[in-house]
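Exercise 7b. C-alpha cells:
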C-alpha cells in the first residue's frame, strides 16, 4: 500500500493543540477530496497511533479573505470556529512566509474574523482576534427554543443546572458553579453536550467567578471532550458572566492550559480575545493511501 507523506505542524494556544496542514504550497493534500478530511482528522488526532491533538485545522486559499480555515474535531466532525486555533493560524501564515501582513482576515464557517498580530523581532508574540458579536437568538445558536430567553433551567438525571446559551459561530452552554470539578466536567459535560435542547450538540463551559475581572473556566468541547482551553468558550463565558451581572466587560479567563484576555466592547458589541500561539513540532504524517 502506498504511503503518502503529508507535511504538518503541531501548534497550541492556551493548551488547545491542533495539527495544522496547508494546501497552499506543493503538498499532496491539495489533490485530496474533501470527503477525506474527517477521516484524516480522526487519524492524526489519535494520541497513541496518530500525532495526537484536539483536532485538525486546514489552511486553504480564500476568495473573500486572506486565508480560509477549516476545523475538524478529534471525532471528525467539523466545527464552525476555534478561537485558539485561529490565533495559531495567524502565527503560522506569518512565520511561514505566506503573508507579511499583520492584520489578516480569516474565513471560517462562523464568518470572516479579523486578526491583529503583535510581532516582536519578526515573531508573533500574541494575537488579538475580533470574534464578532455574540449570538443570543436561540434559533441561530441553535437551541430548541425561541427568542432571546437565554437563561433557563435544565435537569440532567439527578441535578438541575441553570444555563446561559450563547452563540460564538458555534453553540455554547455556560454554567456558573462554585467549583468546576472532574465529576461536573466528565459526567455531566457529555450529557449536556447531547441534551435534547441542542440540535447540533453544544460546547459546555463550567465557570467559577473569581472577581469582577477574572473567571476560571473548564470546558467540555463538542466532538473533542475535555480540552485545556476553548477560545470561543472563553468569549461566551465572559459575555454570559457580564449579562448575568457577575463581571465587568474586560475579564481575564484562567483556563487549564493558560490565560486569555477577553474584552466585550461596549461601543461595537464585538468581543476581542488576546492570547498566545506556539509551535510544538513539525514533520510528516505517514498516511496509508486509502483513496
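Sequence design result:
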Amino acid at each position: 500500500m502506498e504511503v503518502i507523506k503529508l507535511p504538518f505542524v503541531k501548534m497550541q494556544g492556551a493548551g488547545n493543540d491542533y495539527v495544522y496542514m496547508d494546501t497552499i504550497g506543493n503538498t499532496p493534500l491539495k489533490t485530496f477530496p474533501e470527503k477525506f478530511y474527517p477521516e484524516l482528522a480522526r487519524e492524526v488526532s489519535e494520541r497513541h497511533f496518530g500525532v495526537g491533538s484536539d483536532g485538525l485545522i486546514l489552511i486553504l486559499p480564500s476568495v473573500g479573505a486572506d486565508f480560509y480555515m477549516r476545523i475538524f474535531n478529534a471525532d471528525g466532525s467539523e466545527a464552525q470556529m476555534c478561537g485558539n486555533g485561529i490565533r495559531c493560524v495567524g502565527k503560522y501564515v506569518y512565520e511561514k512566509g505566506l503573508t507579511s501582513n499583520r492584520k489578516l482576515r480569516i474565513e471560517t464557517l462562523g464568518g470572516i474574523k479579523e486578526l491583529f498580530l503583535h510581532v516582536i523581532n519578526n515573531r508573533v508574540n500574541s494575537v488579538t482576534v475580533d470574534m464578532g458579536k455574540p449570538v443570543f437568538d436561540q434559533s441561530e445558536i441553535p437551541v430548541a427554543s425561541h427568542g432571546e430567553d437565554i437563561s433557563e433551567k435544565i435537569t440532567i438525571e439527578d441535578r438541575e443546572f441553570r444555563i446561559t446559551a450563547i452563540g460564538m459561530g458555534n453553540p455554547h452552554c455556560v454554567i456558573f458553579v462554585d467549583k468546576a470539578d472532574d465529576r461536573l466536567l466528565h459526567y455531566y459535560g457529555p450529557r449536556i453536550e447531547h441534551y435534547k435542547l441542542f440540535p447540533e450538540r453544544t460546547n459546555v463551559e463550567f465557570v467559577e467567578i473569581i472577581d469582577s475581572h477574572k473567571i476560571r473556566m473548564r470546558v467540555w468541547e463538542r466532538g473533542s471532550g475535555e480540552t485545556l482551553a476553548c477560545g470561543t468558550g472563553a468569549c461566551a463565558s465572559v459575555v454570559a458572566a457580564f449579562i448575568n451581572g457577575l463581571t465587568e466587560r474586560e475579564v481575564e479567563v484562567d483556563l487549564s492550559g493558560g490565560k486569555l484576555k477577553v474584552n466585550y466592547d461596549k461601543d461595537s458589541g464585538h468581543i476581542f480575545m488576546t492570547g498566545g500561539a506556539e509551535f510544538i513540532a513539525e514533520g510528516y504524517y505517514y498516511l496509508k493511501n486509502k483513496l
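Instructor comment: The longest helix spans residues 83-95. Residues 190 and 225 are 7 Å apart (CA to CA).
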